[in-house]
Amino acid sequence: MNIPENLKYTKDHEWLRLEGDTAVVGITDYAQHELGEIVFIEVETLGETLAEGEPFGTVEAVKTVSELFMPVEGTVGEFNSELEDHPELVNDDPYGKGWIIKMDVQNADEIDGLLSPDEYKALIGD
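Now predict its structure.
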């Protein structure tokens, strides 16, 4: 599994990358692999401020639908519109072109509570 060292992770298999005051969020390589072929991503929370752990959207694969959870408290600022026509980008490039949302973090200290790459590797047994 690809687990980049420059990201933070959740137990629900989301990743977070801080870019200034904005956090970019997606699902991990492990998560996309477990879900299989992704056919649709839905985010109906644009502009909403959500608590850590609250659902911000769903990812639909051929065999299942899974909720996407906020890694930290924040406001959903942008949805990756490329995913509307090309949801497979999450399978092909989960840490790059397959990002799902950009958010404004309410409390940057919460990011320290996320999993490190090594802690995430331990979680998934890698």
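Strands lie at 8-9, 14-19, 22-27, 38-42, 49-50, 55-61, 65-69, 74-79, 101-105.
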